[in-house]
Amino acid sequence: MTLHIDIPEETFSGILAKAFRNSAFVAGFVVTLLILAMAIASYAWTPYDVTRLVISDKTQAPSLAHWFGTDHFGRDILSMVMVGARNSIAVALVAVGIGMGVGVPLGAFAAARGGLVDEALMRLNDLVFAFPALLSAIMITAIFGPGAVNAIIAIGIFNIPVFARVARAGALAIWPREFILAARAAGKSSTQITVEHVLPNIATLLLVQGTIQFALGILAEAGLSYLGLGAQPPMPSWGRMLFDAQTRMVVAPWMAIFPGMAIVVTVLGLNLLGDGIADILDPKSRRQR
Known about the structure:
Elements: H1 12-19, H2 23-44, H3 77-113, H4 115-129, H5 133-144, H6 148-174, H7 178-185, H8 190-201, H9 203-226, H10 238-245, H11 254-281, H12 283-287
Helix pairs in contact: 2-3, 2-11, 3-4, 3-6, 3-8, 3-9, 3-11, 4-6, 5-6, 6-8, 6-9, 7-8, 9-10, 9-11, 10-11
Protein name: ABC transporter permease
Transmembrane segments: 24-45, 89-112, 124-145, 250-273
Family: Belongs to the binding-protein-dependent transport system permease family.
């Protein structure tokens, strides 16, 4: 007689129900969805053309015609915030993709091999980590010139050691487990074990870290654009808008308030979303239901 034990697994509907009972997840999801919707809508429509200069309308206060007011060139700030959202999201998304695509395999490989290979990769990782995104962007800009592509490369390089560390730490916690020993006994290679068993078990950890790095990528892009190293005029950017507003805070404070609020709300929403995902997918949280 074969003993068969059914271990209940949480269904998708169960996870979904739990998600919408989590206030942090709901708040972060709603905010993030609104920002994404605004960014996507900007590809098809904005209240005004962001490249059109109307000097006669410069520094107008918020009104029915211009909900967020206008800047020193007469451009509609709401339209610029919408277009700036898609630029910031695109830069951060691609940069996180670069960091995850390179860093996760490196970290998982280091954990699988161990020994001198692990040590060498982690010391190389520390070397890259010593150069923050801003310094990397300055060096890249000095060679290739400023631009959104160079900002993506700089932020992406900075993200590589972050994901490598997270993937390595998560993988090292999985390798001593019994099911890994069973996979080894079955004759599976380290690569097979990593792909089939280790990476699926650290996917939640990587997802949460990806959300955090996405929020940090938004901040990094804004900082680089503020210094003139990110998206170049006439393409709007939240950081560039803050730079243009710094000398006009008394005359037109709305020039800084609205792009600043856009950055704060976006980063806050992503952080709440990450915290909510961590709570929902945390096994300890499931057992305490």
